[in-house]
Amino acid sequence: MPPPARSPAAGARRRALIIPLMLLPLLLLLHLTSSPSHPPLPPTRKPSQACDYSAGEWVRDSPAESSPRYDHTCKEIFKGWNCIANGKANGRDLLRWRWKPSGTGCELPRLDPRRFLERHRNTNIGFVGDSLNRNMFASLICMLRGVSGEVRKWRPAGADRGFTFLRYNVTVAYHRTNLLVRYGRWSASPNGGSLESLGYKQGYRVDVDIPDQTWVEACSFHDVLIFNTGHWWWAPSKFDPIKSPLLFFEKGEPVVPPLLPPAGLDLALEHMITFVNKAMRPNTIKLFRTQSPRHFEGGDWNEGGSCQRNQPLLLEEVEEFFSLDNNGTNVEARLVNQHLIKALEGSTFRVLDITRMSEFRADAHPSTTGGKKHDDCMHWCLPGPTDTWNDLLAASLETVER
Ligand SMILES: *[C@@H]1O[C@H](CO)[C@@H](O)[C@H](O)[C@H]1NC(C)=O
Ligand SMILES: *[C@@H]1O[C@H](CO)[C@@H](O)[C@H](O)[C@H]1NC(C)=O
């Protein structure tokens, strides 16, 4: 359970009210001369503890309410994800849906970029994971740059990319890692070994207890980390189970008998959760984002699958796509989550559950406009649903005492 909420903003407002009025001009002067970028936190709809933001429905917003939070000129948008610039027919229309959590009176507030920067002043926030976490990172950067353009672009602590918002001293970085753990090509040694004696000739060596170099330093650098992994564990085209299987190693030795990827994922998660708990300072915040669903119809990505929807899926369609019983093309979303939830149970990680809300959004992938030979029904248009993931992130961080 998350700790009980307390609102620093509410305290500040109360104090502000009892300050004698005569002091106001002086305070204003001090305020103007000392720190122009230090206004009190604007009041905002507080996210409520009682609300479960992961369950709900997408409702149509009026055009006025659904103004884009940033536009296609944000430079951090990877080319293939820029659905508006690339002319995706519903590139603008897909923004007109708002996530409505199911509890009575529950609303997921939109991330307020100014408030976010103010609240996280002097904080380092890192995304660690595959390209879907980069997608979420890019969304956050675009939102924040809209209100605070003075940035330093750099690569902190081994990051693939990162920005410091200079007026607030907030750093947001992306650390690229496919499996979280270290892996590389493996081929049979002429001197033999336990894998060789089982007939393995080549594959990928995956060290389940060694974090990928790209994020080792992230643990001591960042105050908030958002992890993900999943797609690469279920990527037979990359890690063909016959031609190039994942071969798991622990303490430098092959795990024998060899494990299938789902069991390897369990081991890797167990080790990485332990590693992060040791490596991060106390009072840091660890979040694990659940699996991002894909929406391939009529075949997988390399079988001509596509996602030509103009609206979110209906409830029945979501079940058809993702229910484990149906074992459809995109079934890995819920499968991966089973492994994540099991591994995170009883840990100090918070779960950022974006799967359900995203399952509906078959309309929000780059599709044929992704600039690849095949349709992209895996990444998300920007602006798009990962903006809502960041709303959830902001709401989750609001409930943490700092
Ligand atoms: C900026 O934030 C970092 C990370 O919290 C901190 O170490 C550093 O002292 C801050 N710099 C300033 C000038 O406040
Ligand atoms: C699910 O489908 C895949 C491929 O279509 C198949 O290889 C696998 O055996 C199926 N799994 C179950 C539990 O039916």
TrEMBL record:
GO terms for molecular function: xylan O-acetyltransferase activity. The lineage of its organism: Eukaryota, Viridiplantae, Streptophyta, Embryophyta, Tracheophyta. Its main location: Golgi. It holds the Pfam family PMR5N. The keyword NAD does not apply. This is Trichome birefringence-like N-terminal domain-containing protein. PANTHER family: PROTEIN TRICHOME BIREFRINGENCE-LIKE 13, PROTEIN TRICHOME BIREFRINGENCE-LIKE 9-RELATED. Residues 108-395 form the Trichome birefringence-like C-terminal domain. InterPro entries: TBL, TBL_C, TBL_N.
